[in-house]
Write a structure and sequence with these properties.
By secondary structure, this protein is α/β, with parallel strands linked by helices. 41% of the residues lie in helices and 20% in strands. It is globular and about 60 Å long. This is Glucokinase.
Length: 323
Amino acid sequence: MIGVGVDIGGTFVKLFVMNEHGEIFRKEKIETDYSKGAKGFITQIGDYINAIQKEFQDQQVAVAVGAPGDVDNQKGVLRYNPNLKFKDIANWPLAQLLYKHTGIMPCVANDATLAAWGVYEADLKHQGTNILVVTLGTGVGGGLILNKELYQGSNGTAGEIGHTKIADTATGPLCGCGARGCLEAFVGTIGIKRRVLEAVTDYPDSILAQLVAAEKDFKIEIVSRAAEKGCKTALKVWEDTGHYLGIGLANFTLVLDIDTIVLTGGVSGAAPYFLPAVKRVLAAQQIQTPFKRLKILVSQNPNIGGVGAAMYAIYRAKKDTLK
């Protein structure tokens, strides 16, 4: 059996083709093409899937699509997404559109949800029972494995840790979703950028300020480069990031009593700088039972969303066959 994983992002789409043994036959990263609109985008992805069907015509091909935003996993509809720039895609019926183009009904889920499956299958090798996977990038997403099964909740929105509130909803920083006080507004790259700009204004002679001034565009790596040089301002930015993230992780752990947290995404590369602060927050919780055996890991796979989508496509196809 062949699994095709499609990981849709606002800037790039990652496509993975794998078999049930975990062998990767294709992996591609293409720009999210807005020039031909939403219809042209569906045609582009559908044509890719059709090419894979033709190449592997002696095998069953299954497809899963990870989409950023609010996804109805039962109907395969992307209900809302602020980061995709296509017009008129509110309640976008991704599954039906791709089915019409390819003849395959794909699984459609939140991208962080499918990243969680990828972590569970590829990174953890099914170790752990209740797992939270947190994607740290422009946005902050979450996916859940509960009792060794992918958990998407009643409406497909389970795991939205980025939009849990850790600050006053009237005065906290504004999140991309339009609300205030979200975890994402503190530990997503936009939130980190905001705090960096505040820091370099306060400390204009810092190494961080010099690196920010020298770069045309802000990149999260700038903060890590400054931290590597021992810049106290950069180290404080990462310490604060860890503190805020620790609050969000503590809240989820207290509710769900999870045994493993795995961090993924671009910001997770700075874990050596912010994880100590995360652990201090967890250690300071009054109820310690759920934290005593909690493991916090960092995925080293930058393509875990696409890998997870391909693996989940195969898993679901096999499960449906057994029904």
